From TrEMBL:
Organism of origin: Entomortierella parvispora
Family: Belongs to the glutamine synthetase family.
Gene3D superfamilies registered for this protein in UniProt: Glutamine synthetase, N-terminal domain (3.10.20.70), Glutamine synthetase/guanido kinase, catalytic domain (3.30.590.10)
Name under which the protein is recorded: Glutamine synthetase
GO biological process, one term: glutamine biosynthetic process
Phylogenetic placement of the source organism: Eukaryota, Fungi, Fungi incertae sedis, Mucoromycota, Mortierellomycotina
InterPro entries with a match to the protein in the record: Gln_synt_N_sf (IPR036651), Gln_synth/guanido_kin_cat_dom (IPR014746), Gln_synth_cat_dom (IPR008146)
Annotated Polar residues bias: 17-29
The keyword Aminoacyl-tRNA synthetase is annotated on this UniProt entry: no
Keyword list, A-Z: Ligase
Amino acid sequence: MMHVSRSSSSSSLPPSINTNLPGTSGTAPNNAQALVQEITSLVKDDDRIKVAGIDLDGILRGKIMAKSKFLSILESGFGFCSVIFGWDMHDKTYAEELSISNAANGYKDIIAIPDLTTYRRIPWENNIPFFLLSFYDPNTKEPLAVCPRGVLKKVTDDLSSLGWEAMCGAEFEFFNFKETPDTLAAKGHTAPEALTPGMFGYSLLRPSLHQDYFYDIYDKCKEFQINIESLHTETGPGVYEAALSYTTATQMADMASLFKLSVKQLGLKHGIMPTFMAKPYSDQPGCSGHLHFSIRDISTKANLFAASGSTATATPSNEQQLHSPTSDDDLIPNQSALESAAPDAYSTSSMSSALQHALANPRPVWEKVEGVDKMSQIMKWFTAGLLTGLPSIMAILAPNINSYKRLVENYWAPVTISWGIESRVSAIRVIGPPQCDPKGTRLEMRVGGADINAHLAIGACLAVGLYGIKNKLAMPVGPTTVEMEQAEEGQSHKPMRIKAERLPKSLKESALAMLAKDSIARQVLGDAFVDHYGATRLNEYRLWETAVTTWETKRYFELV
C-alpha cells in the first residue's frame, strides 16, 4: 500500500546540482556548462564511470567507461548499438525486424547522452559514479521514438507547457527465493525454494530470518538515492513490498527502474534471488506495481486533483504538503497556455459554457457518492482519460505473457475498466479526504504488475490522462459496484464480481488494441512508438504460442 510521505522527496544530489535541469539535451547553455563543470569536479578522483540506458522491457543496458572517455562525451553523447531496441529480454532479435534496428541498416548506432542530473554512486560497487542515459536519433538529434525516458519526457514537457507538473509514487511487490541463477537453472527454473514460509503480511518476525538482506535493501537504496518510504512483508511466501517516496514523475520512473536492479544486485550478494515477475505462483496473489498520480501547478504548488475549498498549504520545507485550488476558476490554471495549445477545445467561452451546462443539468447519480465531491474537475477528466484509454495502453501496463496470469478475479488484482473511491477492487482507486489530507488527493492505477517498465507505464498513464483533460472527457462509467456470488462447495469465501467491462485478457489482445489505427495510445504516444512497441509485444506472444510448456509435457507426454 502507498503512503504519501510527509517529508521532502527531493533527490539527495550534491546541493550545487540543479535537479530541475532536464539533462544535457535542451538545457540552457549557461546552465549546461555549469552542470558539466560540476560533474567534472565530482568525478575528479575517479578513473571509471558506469552508465546505463533503459530498453523496452525496462532492463538497464550499460557499460563502464574510462573517465577520460566519459568527460569527452558529456555534451555530444556517444554511439550505442541500436540492437537493444531490436531484440527481446533474452537478446534474441525480433522475428519481424523493425525500422529502428535491423540487419538491413546494420543495427546502426543511436546516440546515447548521459543525463547529468541522475548522478549518484553505487555503494555496493565501491561507490562508482553512475549516470542514466537517454537515447537520441542520430539524424534528427531528437529523442528516439522508442526510448522509454524520451517517451516520458514528451508528456512531462506537454504538462510543463501548461504550467503543470506530474507527481508520482510507486509500490512494488516481489517474491524472494533461496536461489542463484545457477541453482535455478539446474532445476530447470522449477520449484524455487521460498525465502520464508507461509502467509505473513506486515510481519516483524519474518524479516529477522534474513535481516542483513532486508536492511540492505532499505539502507543501500537510500545511499543510491532511491528513497524507500516503507518496506514490509506481504501476504505470501518470501514476499516483500516497497513503497517509493512520492516525487516528480521523471524521478519516480528513474528510481523505480534502479530499485529493481538494486534489489537484484543486492540479492546476489546474499545468495537470494528476488523476482518481479507478475505471477510466480498460480495459487498465490501476484506481484503488483501500483502507481500513484497527481498533478500540481508549478508556480503555486497547488494539487490540482484536490477539490475546491481546501485550505491546505504548501511549505518550503515539505513539498508533499501541497495546497489545493480555492475556487472553480482555479481548476483551470494557466488559461492562456491551454488556449494556445488547443484554441478550439480551450477557449474561455467554451469553458464558461461547460460550467454553465454543468450547473443547468443534474449531475449523474454517482456524482453524489461519498468522496466524489473531493475530486476536482481536472481529476475527473484525468480519470476519464485513463479509463477511456486503458485498453489501448494495457500492453504497457501488462507487458508480458505472465502479466495476464495475475489479472484474474479474487486475487487482489483488477480485471475491469473501473474506478472507485478507496476501492482496492477497481482498476483505479481514488484517494482523498478523509483517508488523507486534501493535499494528498491522488489516484492509484492498480492494473500494472511489478514487471512494468516504469518509464513507459508512467508516461502512458499521464498521456491518456492528459488526453482526458484536453478533451474534457466524461467518466465512461460510474464508481465500482460489486456483486458477491454464492460460494461453491469447497470455496472458503464468496467470489466477487465487478459490474464493468473486462480488461483485455491476453498480451495479443492488448497489443492489437494498441496497434489499432484509431487507438488512443496511437494518438498520444505517436505512430513510431506504437508500431514498434506493439510489434515487440506480438513477437513475445508468438514465442509463447509456439512454446511447449512443462504443463503440456506433464499432462500429455505419457497418456495421450
